[in-house]
Amino acid sequence: MIGSMHSPRLVLASASPRRHELLAALDATFSVLATDAETTELATPSAIQAALPSVALPLGQHPTLLAWRKASTVAALAPDAVVLGADTIVVLEGAVLNKPTDAADARAMLGSLAGRTHRVYTGLCVILPATDGAATGRTLLDLATAEVTLHAVDAAEIAAYVATGEPLDKAGAYGVQGLGGRLVQAVRGSYTAVVGLPLVLVHGLLTAAGIRGLADPTTTYQRWLQSQGKEPLPWPPTLP
User: Fold this and answer.
1) What pLDDT score does 1 carry?
2) Which residues of 156-179 are buried (b: 16+ CB within 10 A; e: fewer)?
3) What pLDDT, on a 0 to 100 scale, did the predictor assign at position 235?
4) Catalytic residue among 36, 80, 87, 154
């Protein structure tokens, strides 16, 4: 129970290995139950719509709404658990860059991002266990924003990166935590939001939901970077 000495069961509503890795790095004990709910047009309760963090995007592309769709679908399947959902999008001048459809699309995306600054949003939703016969419990929502600047890489560098295959399952066609990190000049805001799970916000939401024993998010970030063989970007100083 929330408020007891024991943590409630935690379920991550995502198949992303990067989110699994970051949540595990927080010393969270969790299971995974992923669906394709973000692609389903679920009716949005007025209370959820009113609570969504402000962002200049159409409602259907709001990353926190997409995170809520994932979490609410899983919460209906696991009503006794705290459920965490997350969704990350890349936005360049108001246009959402999803996962590329093929290598040519990935090259085009990276060409549009090269030498420019774009925004990455990760929406979060945590749903507490259902009580008193309700379908789901209390819902907590949040949104992390980061600005990312890529180096002015040329077509040959882009083609070489796309040939590794890494960009093909990444929003915006790059993975900051992988080989794509070489393309990144600066991150302003949460580095782990760009990876897909902003550690500071996740720590706060899960603590509010009664999850105990989580590691400090800043220490976790530093330890995770070391495990990846990476150093924090020197300027501006990257945040967890």
Assistant:
1) 38
2) eebeebbeeebbeebbbbbbbbbe
3) 62
4) 87
Positive/negative CA dihedral, 208, 63, 84, 197: negative
Contact between 83 and 8 (Cβ < 8 Å): no
Whether 87 is a known active-site residue: answer yes
Residue ranges of the chain with pLDDT lower than 70? 1-5, 38-40, 132-136, 234-237
pLDDT of residue 39: 67
Element (DSSP H or E) covering residue 91: strand 82-92
Which residues does 96 contact at the CB level (< 8 Å), separation at least 6?
57, 61, 89, 90
The predicted pLDDT at position 220 comes to 96
Q: What pLDDT sits at residue 122?
A: 98
Task: Report the residue count for the chain.
Answer: 240
Token pair 């709001």: residue: 62
Angle between helices 17-25 and 199-208 in degrees, nearest 10: 70
DSSP conformation class of 210? T
> So where are the chain's domains?
10-227
- Cα-Cα-Cα-Cα dihedral of 86, 79, 23, 110, to 10°? -20
Token output for 227 = 């495990």
Can you give the pLDDT at residue 234? Answer: 64
Q: Could you tell me the fold of the domain covering 10-227? A: Maf protein (3.90.950)
